[in-house]
Amino acid sequence: MKEIRAIIRPNKLPKLRTMLRHLPGFPGMTVSKAEGFGAPSRHMPHNIKEELTDYSARTRVEIVSPDEQVDAIVQCIISVACTGQTGDGLVWVVPIERAVFINKTTVGSPYG
């Protein structure tokens, strides 16, 4: 299993959600708000107020997926999120050693 993490522009989330739902066996995703900034550009903050508000709103997407679905999911995220502009986002994949779904069948299990 792998965890796919992505930072995308918030306005791309509705289309991404629609496209991912069309992938066979899509496992679902977790979405949260994020703020950040990329590598320094030519515009550098000139005062403390500007420095503290120099962040851009972004959306963080997290998906735990079987290995065989990872490439299709990553490609879907890239195709939806890409506008060709700097700051479109970032996608990375992290191996998962173990994952346990929490539901009524895990109650009383040795892993819970």
- Provide the spatial order of strands within the biggest beta sheet: 2-3-1-4
Summarize model confidence as the mean pLDDT.
Answer: 87
Helix content percent band? 25-40%
- Main CATH class: Alpha Beta
Shape, please?
elongated
Q: What's the SSE pattern? A: EHEHEHE
Low-confidence stretches: none
Number of domains: 1
- The CATH architecture is 2-Layer Sandwich
- Biggest sheet features: 4 strands, antiparallel
Helix segment count?
3
Task: Please state the structural category.
Answer: alpha+beta
Cα distance, first to last residue? 19 Å
The amount of beta strand, in percent, is 25-35%
CATH topology: Alpha-Beta Plaits
Description:
The chain is α+β, with helices and mostly antiparallel strands. The chain has one domain (2-95): 2-Layer Sandwich (Alpha-Beta Plaits), CATH 3.30.70. It has helices spanning 13-21, 48-52, 67-81; strands spanning 2-8, 30-36, 56-65, 89-95. Strands 2-3-1-4 form a four-stranded antiparallel beta sheet, covered by helices on one side. It starts with a strand and ends in a 17-residue tail after the last strand. The mean pLDDT is 87.
Helix/strand layout:
Blueprint: E1 2-8, H1 13-21, E2 30-36, H2 48-52, E3 56-65, H3 67-81, E4 89-95
Helix pairs in contact: 1-3
